[in-house]
Amino acid sequence: MEAGPGKTTVLWDESYLWGLIAHRTFTGLRVDFRLVSAADVRAGALDGCHVLFVPGGWAGDKMRALGAEGAAAIRDFVHGGGSYLGFCGGAGLALAHADGLGLAPVSRLSSRQRLPSFSGNIELLHAEPAHPLWQGIGDGTPFHAWWPGQFAIDGNEQGITVLATYGRPGFDAFVTDLPVSEGMQWDAWEERYGIDLDPGRIAGEPAVIETSHGRGKVILSYIHFETPGDKAGYRVLLNILRYLAGGREVAGGPVFRRHAAARSRRSDVEPDAEAVAAAADMAATARSFYRFGHEHLLWYRRRDWLLQWRRGVRGTEYSTLEAMLKEIAEVGELAGGYDPESNRALKSLVAEVESFYADARRLLMRERLAMTRGPLSPLRCEDQDIQELRRELFSTDRRCGGRYRRLLEVLDPVLLKVLRRLSGTDS
To answer: Has residue 427 got a pLDDT over 70?
Structure first.
């Protein structure tokens, strides 16, 4: 690999909201990076790269997108001296299980063994205080975990270094829709909800680990150091990238001026006013749907990109779809439009988006009524009308499916292409 600045590549496929968050943070920090698809990886996109970053998302879906050839390309990249950084689902992708690349000789706890419903701030305790990632960061600093998995480490694994463990929950911490605060009787709530809730269950568990694969380094984290607005997280993220890039400077990329339309517009496409209007209309439909759920006390804005929702409704999915529609509309306007294929896709999608949100409103009202009879599971319900609507819109699995999945499959390539065009990395 060439000398000079550290080159970072971000794997876009099957990341959705987390890919968008990574793009926002990396551009804000001026990290020298590029977005690549699984097809790009199969075509040799990792050549000349120093660090591959894989954002959150479902590890199994990422593995299917990569295919055997893409998975082999990543293994070869790391084995030959490249570095791998994975957060949350990106960490899960690297592990040794059926959906994993096998870059790290550990697996993950099953959903029944872990605390999958935690979100928000939590302290990190330094297990390796002298490690470069902690430069400028005090022990016990809180960072953000968003529904983390957990590593299955019993202490007998060879070549695994635990860099951080979970400490105490901080401010803005929730377990499902329950705020973590003094006086919470977790045993009573666990009996009521029928799931593990006590955040004390993850205290002392590994949160960030390091290993090696061949000549390459691998750092895996269930903490989202790229969370927008987290200055301590930003510092750790840059520390990690520099370390994985062999001490090379990783910042210094182009300034991504979201609101500097005059600089950002490109002349290589002919603006399609109908497509631009379609993107704006779909974003407006998503905003209206947010207001509908907010008025019915089903959620509020926890971040500009994330809802805090009541248990029993789909919150991550609604957050993801709204964030993607908003970004496509805003960035498309800045970029002066979309490519012809994206124009066709956006114009054809308006009716589907409107229909999806109309049926989602029906589902929300049925779910709200069901909540009056007791706690509502987001996956199982005796009300057959609710179950059928859930199956149609999302599937009845934790993974996204149904009509929601089909919308993402159209929107995701559009978003990738327009982000590449606006940053000048679409060639």
So the answer is: no
